[in-house]
């Protein structure tokens, strides 16, 4: 029987292809804006400057200080730069860190956002903003946070290092995994996920061998769009909670943390969700948790929290922090259960 559902509609305009960066000036004009502040990390400043040159009179400058987990001090400087330049919208060129800065400016100023994602992290389709102040990370959802336009240019992902290609893809698959059992899931998101999983399974091994393969890059970026949409339109649970705790309170790197946790959070919830994780098991083989672990190992992903800088003595505190406030999850979240999950992820064992 078809399940009842609500499909909220997709509000973001999406442009996808090779060389679509050339369309950014038209997209800014289409929004009715004549001055755009271009954002990037320091690492991608040259690309941001080239985009500002391409925008010509529509460029209000470049702010190239985006940083992981959106520190509020950086946002305050960026908002001042946005206002001083008389900018009307932001153009965010980069991964989740740059998209996060654009969202933080937008929620404070009402600016429209054109986002050009260059990783698979998937912030671009969401109404979620995580920010850090004084070492504390807080996350909120607000319709004003969701970008107006996303321009996916496959060519910009050719330079994504192999390590980040792998971990960022697993980060994206984590959104799909939790969306499959989300109480507010819907058939549109499910169809996108069923498209995305084999696309990542087939593209990532090709990219590990040939990072410049344009067709594999296109498949991976398409899959990233599907997974970002899943993240942006249905609820997340245990996996995202744990990644948030390890990133926000223990300073672990974002994509790598998602990559290491994914097989373990999947295996934890798998017995509680009937056949909802079957698309993952069918795509990667075995049970969903073990299949993802084998896939992660085959593409050289990090497998152990121990290798990401977490100390074994931190595991108790991580389990405590992650279970302090109750939240919806298919399988009850107990402190001991999460402590055991974290130990497995710390050791890097294949989940049962
Ligand atoms: P990132 O944006 O921090 O990028 C990592 C590094 O890779 C940066 O130096 C960046 O400049 C560089 N880089 C990015 N794309 C590149 C490319 N194509 N070629 C060469 N270098 C490139 O990393 P990320 O994993 O994309 O994003 C992580 C951040 O995004 C975290 O802060 C996370 O919380 C946030 N995030 C938020 C959401 C949301 O919905 N709010 C979703 C996913 C991630």
UniProtKB/TrEMBL annotation:
Transmembrane stretches, start-end: none
Q: List each copy of the Fe-containing alcohol dehydrogenase-like C-terminal domain by range.
A: 165-346
Superkingdom as given in the UniProt entry? Bacteria
What InterPro entries is this protein classified in?
ADH_Fe/GldA, ADH_Fe_C, Alcohol_dehydrogenase_Fe, MAR
Instruction: Give start and end of each Alcohol dehydrogenase iron-type/glycerol dehydrogenase GldA domain.
Output: 12-153
Q: Which UniProt keywords apply?
A: NAD, Oxidoreductase
**CDD domains with a match to the protein in the record:** MAR
Q: Which family does it belong to?
A: Belongs to the iron-containing alcohol dehydrogenase family.
Protein name, per record: Maleylacetate reductase
């Amino acid at each position: 029987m078809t399940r009842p559902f609500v499909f909220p509609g997709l509000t973001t305009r999406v442009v996808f292809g090779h060389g679509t960066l050339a369309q950014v000036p038209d997209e800014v004009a289409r929004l009715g804006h004549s001055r755009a502040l271009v954002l990037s990390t320091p690492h991608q400043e040259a690309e941001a400057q080239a985009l500002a040159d391409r925008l010509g009179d529509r460029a209000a400058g470049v702010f190239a200080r985006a940083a992981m987990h959106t520190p509020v001090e950086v946002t305050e400087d960026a908002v001042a730069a946005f206002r001083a330049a008389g900018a009307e919208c932001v153009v965010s060129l980069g991964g989740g860190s740059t998209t996060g800065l654009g969202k933080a400016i937008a929620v404070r100023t009402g600016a429209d956002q054109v986002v050009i994602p260059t990783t698979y992290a998937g912030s671009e389709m969401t109404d979620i903003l995580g920010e850090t102040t004084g070492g504390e990370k807080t996350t909120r959802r607000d319709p004003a946070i969701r970008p107006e336009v996303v321009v996916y240019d496959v060519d910009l992902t050719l330079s994504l290092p192999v390590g980040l290609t792998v971990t960022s893809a697993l980060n994206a698959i984590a959104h799909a995994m939790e969306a499959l059992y989300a109480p507010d899931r819907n058939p549109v998101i499910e169809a996108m996920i069923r498209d995305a999983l084999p696309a990542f399974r087939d593209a990532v091994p090709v990219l590990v061998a040939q990072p410049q393969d344009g067709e594999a890059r296109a498949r991976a970026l398409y899959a990233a769009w599907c997974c970002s949409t899943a993240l942006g339109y249905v609820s997340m649970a245990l996996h995202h909670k744990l990644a948030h705790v390890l990133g926000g309170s223990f300073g672990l790197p974002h994509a790598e943390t998602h990559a290491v946790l994914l097989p373990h959070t999947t295996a934890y919830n798998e017995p509680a969700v009937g056949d909802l994780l079957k698309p993952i098991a069918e795509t990667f083989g075995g049970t969903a948790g073990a299949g993802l672990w084998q896939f992660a190992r085959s593409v050289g992903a990090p497998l152990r929290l121990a290798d990401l800088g977490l100390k074994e003595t931190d595991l108790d505190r991580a389990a405590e922090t992650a279970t302090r406030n109750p939240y919806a999850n298919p399988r009850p979240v107990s402190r001991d259960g999460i402590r055991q999950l974290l130990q497995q992820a710390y050791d890097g064992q294949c989940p049962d």
